[in-house]
Amino acid sequence: MQPKTSNESLRPDSYKMKTTGLTTKLSSIAVLITAALLLELTTAVQYLSTRNGITRKLTEMAQHDLSETNRTTLLKLDVEEFTTKMLPTIERFTAIHATDSLRLYIGQMLDQQHEIVGFDYCDVVGPDRQRNGIYIYKNDEGKCAEHSIDFDYTQRSWYSEGLKGDGFWSEPYMSNYKVILMCTYSMPVRDEQGQTVAVFGADVSMRDLSALATQLFDNQQRSLLPIILLHGLGLLLLGFIIIHSVRSIRRLQVVGAEKERIANELAIAHRIQQAMLPKIFPPFPDRNDVDLYGALNPAREVGGDFYDFCLRDEKLFFCIGDVSGKGVPAALVMAMAISAFRMLSEHESAPELIISQMNDSMARDNDYNMFITLFIGVLDLTTGQLRYSNAGHKSPMIDSQPLPVIPNLPIGTLPDFQYAQQQMTIKAGSTIFLYTDGLTEAENDTKEQFGSQRMHTIIAKTLSDSASPKALIGQMTEAVHDFVGDTEQSDDLTMLAIRFKLKQCSNVLELESVKRQYHLTLPCDVKQTTRLAEWIEDICETAGISPSTTMQINLAIEEAVVNVMKYAYPNGSEGDVKLEAVTDTDWLTFTITDHGQPFDPTAQGEVDTTLPAEERALGGLGIHLMRKYMDSLSYKRLDNCNILTMRKHINH
Amino acid sequence: MYMKTTFKQDKQHLVMAFEGRLDTAASSQAEEDMRVLYDCEGRDIILDCTHLDYISSSGLRLFLGLIKNARPKGSHVYLTGMNDSLRQVFDETGFTTLFEIL
What we know:
A: 5-stranded antiparallel beta sheet; B: 5-stranded mixed beta sheet
């Protein structure tokens, strides 16, 4: 049955671990999708914001460009208007040949117009090729100056074209008098008859125009900068999101690895905890007077439920317990409790003493107020007498009836609490069924509990078929699983079933004929061991044991008794050595009891029987022979006595 | 219940015959009896176990003490006539390898 139990118990782990792996993968995919969505979203936002930015900038630029163009246009219009306004005065002065007044007027006008750097006044060149031109301009200090035009202005477009119409803008050209590029707006000066007599031109420096052009270009540059900035920002944002996403994924991976590590450790803890419980069933295959089976299904990887049992002096010690809380904290307390039970049940025979000592050790330093509901029973397999003590645990079932229990208190709650012991004699063939509340309080999806009624029904049904403890627990487990369905197990589910059967004898007479008891008490004197040989030979002869086996048994018992006389009663101290021998069909069991100093022969090391004589120690041979010639050896210190039990399997 | 020893010697041998049970109760008497074997001076020691029924660790200890004394003096210790049960005890304790068993 053990492999099945371990398979069942391992299933949640492997399932959990697979689930964890799957969860990690799923969460990674989710993160990737989220990151992709974020990227898309950011790109969209970036696209929109960039588009808005560009549109805004282009609008601004267009408006700006428009205004700059307007400025240029306005400037042009200003110059044209200004010059045209001057023209009648110039024509009047020309008509009266008031050359000085004309020059003065032009100079005054030049001061008024900032955009115009100079004026040209050139007489029309006739067939006599006589040129007469004057250039009135602002010098470097901004003062008005004049210069006669000494070059052939007839070659200039402003002159030739200026003659023709109502106003002409020349292409830019280099000034002859200043290192500037300029354009000239020229128009004809006519006399009263309408004859063109001169050309009047206004020079506009290209510096102003170029400044305007530069400004236009700068504006374009400046509008590029925000776009680049926006692009950069977008990229940064993208980068940030990518880095952030990668970090998130890494963090998730770390968290995943950590979770996996914890899951692994819990899986190991689960196996360790399962290993603490008795798991070899049937535990006493050579005994036909008792059969038992136990099962523990923790709700989580580890839990606080436990059961344990051991057989000593024809008594079955058993317990079932439930630590408050669940998971790792409960598991730690459970480990403490089960080892305390094991140690105490080796020495104490009274359940209330075991429970009291467990309570005292639990209640001490119980800072976290953990407690255990616990039931301990001691069943005398020779008589069917059950002694028990309860610490707030559910009352076990004796067949279909609950065992009457005094609840007392869960252990760990109150130090020095006096636990009551109870006892009753149970009939041969009875089954003791112990469980934790995980059974009766198992819930299905409608929050309904399994309850004691269902438990009673299953017990009644299976026991009427005189089912074995294993079958009873199997059917109970199945019933709970059917009831609960797919609902998650909320609490540990633990059961222990013990079937007490008297020895398979048809009547007491036959029992007596098979089982015999012998007693011998020796004073502490090695000389008295001669009586031992006679006593053993009688027992062995009655039991039909061969002379060579008899000699081996004799040797082993003598060694044990001599050890007691030497070490438990050292230096001639007085005391008795009590021997009891019990024979049944298969076993010869000796129990040697003394009131001497604690002495555990089983704790002695093994001698090396391969050493040469020079290196061989004189001692240690006795325990070696005891181990060799007996099938089991067990020592306990109980009630100030050394008790050594030695068993020999006897074949007929 | 008894244990009895018989001792004989010549120029080359010291012979001790054991009879009965060499158990703990008998071991102190046997220890006294076996003291003569300590003066072996290179002579071989023969322990005749033909009539030895039983030996416990106390007896084995005496045998071990004897061989530890005899070997450095160049003496051999021979065991003769052991029954199967006795032989088994010697086997179990590794004593078979310590003595020359005839």
